[in-house]
Amino acid sequence: MFLEILLAILLGVVAGCFTGLMPGIHTNLIAVMLVSSSGLILEFFSINFLVGFIIAMSITHSFTNTIPSIYLGAPEPSTALNVLPGHKLLMEGEGLNAVKLTLLGSMLGLLICFIMYPVLKLFIRLSYNFLSSNIPIIMVVIGIFLITRTSDWKTNALIYVSSAIVGILVLNSKIDNPLFPMLSGFFGISTLAFSLTDDSKIPLQKKDGFGYIVSKTSLMLGALSGFITSILPGLGSSTAAAISSSIKKEDDTKNFLFMMGSISTVNFFMSIAALSIIDKGRNGSIVAIMNITNEYNIALMVSASLISAGIAISTSRKIAEWFEVIALKLDYKKLVVSVIMLILVMTIILTGIMGLIIVICCSVIGLYSNYKGTPRNLMMACIMVPVSLFFIF
């Protein structure tokens, strides 16, 4: 039994590295494939093997998915807001430190949730009904705050409303993987294309020590945001990113990245607690486990999370070092154009021609936001507003 679970965790870490590094390939896709083939797998392995694999893959993914957003500008929902701060540090010669910040945030956020696990489970039981019934009000308050937090509120409102309209149209369409073209346009291609206007190249990266003092505020904001969205229906890591970033400004680059690193890891880990308390899945991986079995081995899930996180943090750092070596050898503008082309090709493969139209429209809004210098979390209205409308209507 022990060796089987250990094998599951190791294979899950490998799968999580793959999904985290490949734009457009998410853990949900692998989880669905596992569910569809679970009958065959269970002829050779136990339920615990599948559960351990899915948990390890998902936790590892939450560590490695920051690397493409920092080095390539290719985001997914939970890392979309990382692109600009991560790119900024990369261009200051601190790309590896940017990755370290997100990894540190992920690990410390996970450990805090593990230590406070009994308290958080109690809080879920007491607050679930109140929070879930007030989602629209929470989203409206956050939206107003985002728009009015800077003096140029008219431009902020234009970006927010435009993004919301696009989000409503896209998320109510019938295309597959709607978030990929939408967020790639708002946060990925727009940032990369805007960087082409400067005569930039990736500078020689610094090799000195880390030199970062953990911000308690950033850690608690990230952990709290990830925790809240793990128990609320319809709200994911991307919404948590918008909530926490509305409080922590992007110009506090290092603390911002540290905070963002904790969100998706905390979100997934606390989904395990939510499963045990309210018997509901809050992400694709947990839903996959619910489709495989109705007897949840919470101790196995928590243990697999901690073990895979320990492996993932060192593995992710090594992968980031490889990314850095490759990036320094390439011409920056050619690299940017290549990444843009990769995102466009992946968009067509995953979502078809309609996805290509979406990514172009979202890129235009993203470029305008970059040009005007508005807070980038305004574009998260593409998810926040549709979620609010879903619970209103």
Describe it:
- The protein is mostly helical and 393 residues long.
- The protein has one domain (2-392).
- The protein contains 18 helices and no strands.
- Helix 10 (153-171) packs across helix 18 (381-392).
- The chain starts with a helix and ends with a helix.
- The mean pLDDT is 82.
Number of helices: 18
Quaternary structure state of the chains depicted? single chain
**Estimated structural class:** mainly alpha
N-to-C order of helices and strands: HHHHHHHHHHHHHHHHHH
What is the strand content?
A: under 5%
- Give the % helix: over 70%
Strand count, sense and barrel status of the largest sheet are: none
Task: Briefly say what this structure is.
The protein has 393 residues and is mostly helical.
Entry keywords:
single chain, 393 residues, mainly alpha, 18 helices
